[in-house]
Amino acid sequence: MSGTPGEHDTTTDPAGFRPRVPAAEWNDWRWHMRKRINTTDKARRWLRLTADEEKAIAASAGKYRWSITPYYASLMDPDDPACPVRLQAVPAPGELERFPGTDVDPVGDTYYRKTNRVVHKYPDRVIMLVTEACPVYCRHCTRKFHTTDVTGTYFRDDEGGSFDEDLRYIADHPEIRDVLLTGGDPLSYQDGKLEEIVSGLRAIPSVEIIRIGSRFPVLLPQRITDDLCAMLARHHPVWLNTHFNHPKEITPESAAAVDRLLRHGVPVGNQTVLLRGINDDVTTMRTLMTELLRIRVRPYYLYHCDNVTGVAHFMTSVEKGWEIMEGLQGHITGFAVPQYVLTTRIGKIPIARPYFTPTADGLLLRNYRGEEMVVGTAVHPITEPDAR
Ligand SMILES: *Cc1c(COP(=O)(O)O)cnc(C)c1O
Ligand code: SF4
Q: Does residue 5 sit within a domain?
């Protein structure tokens, strides 16, 4: 990508989509928040909407929130409704269809919720659902009921209210060493409010690390300002996991946002969701993972798409997930291979197929090319050998 993004370039944008935007505004995240696309009229300045999209937008009114930052819209193909960026952000008819087995909370957040915002599911770490706001409402959000569904949320009404009860719970449970701020997107808050939350956590001696789950580096990388990064750096160790799903999302702007975080000592990881029609093929996923390494983001999880109400049309089979994982493992460095997990009420469960089978003769191993060998029990005993 070259030139100032958002400027109308008649060579790459002959149809005249992508309105001309002065650089000072384009580089200001608040401008993008103010100018979010949330009506068909605004969307038509960026995309040639299809009849299906228009129908879905109309049908989801009053049910699902819809908003797209101009930055994220600029990554979309204005003429291709199957564009992988567009599919993540523009409502589709599948959201309003009914599928068997869907649930608004398949991961059990409400079951493990201990205070208004704290979900305590694992022994040593919690998540804090600090907001329901996001710059773009991803159509595939696993917390769609909380973020995108206007009829629901896991919060009481006082999102802006005091965090005292939540902080007290964490302080009262010194086994909690790791607090993950999520939502919604925590970076939707202004820096001042965010620093209040982070320093509240830092004041608790048993909290060792603070993690932030944020899709801003992908949806509006301009939000990752030097001021924000310097603020986070005052409260280290702070880690951030983001959510790239497709190589098209890796741009000079997103790479620069990641670079600012890294320069301020915030390690950046990535959680991808396996989505039908978006990234459910080996080539796309291999490119995504290696491109992430190029911008120094470490792949962490590959989530199997949960059977969430309004999201089920994005689901793939577990077989497809295996095929993709086996197209990564060994073909590219292990550093670029995420862990394939299913998020359930009982936790995140690794579901990749093993590369070994225990046999009477030892471990039967296979490699990425399908070649097999047995390592005998004399070399690698499977059970503890008898005392010698
Ligand atoms: C995902 C999640 C975590 C963090 O899990 P890690 O595997 O440590 O990244 C913690 N608590 C809840 C409730 C979660 O859903
Ligand atoms: S940014 Fe994250 S929390 Fe917000 S809608 Fe997208 S996936 Fe959901």
A: no
Between CA 310 and CA 99 the distance in angstroms is 9
Cα of 17 vs centre of ligand 1, distance in Å, is: 40
Region for residue 235 given its phi and psi (left: phi exceeds 0; alpha: psi -120 to 50; beta: otherwise): alpha
pLDDT tens, residue by residue, 75-105: 999 999 999 999 999 999 999 999 999 999 9
What is the edge-to-edge ordering of all strands in the sheet holding 209-213? 118-122, 125-129, 178-182, 209-213, 238-242, 268-274, 298-304, 339-344, 347-350
Check if the beta carbon of residue 288 is closer than 8 Å to that of residue 244. yes
Q: pTM of the predicted model, to two decimals?
A: 0.95
In a domain, 294, yes or no: yes
Pocket of ligand 1 (CB under 6 A): 107, 112, 119, 121-122, 125-127, 180, 348
DSSP H or E stretch at residue 229: helix 226-233
What would the two tokens of residue 290 be? Answer: 């290696």
DSSP track, 315-332:
---HHHHHHHHHHHBTTB
pLDDT digits (tens, 9 = 90+) for 255-278: 999 999 999 999 999 999 999 999
3 occurs within a structural domain: no
In which element (H, E) is residue 3 found? none
Q: How far apart are CA 363 and CA 355, in angstroms?
A: 10
In a domain, 252, yes or no: yes
Compute CA distances 84 → 230, 246, 256, 275, 337, whole Å.
Answer: 33, 7, 22, 10, 21
Ligand 2, pocket-test mutation among 143, 189, 249, 254, most atoms within 8 A of CB:
143
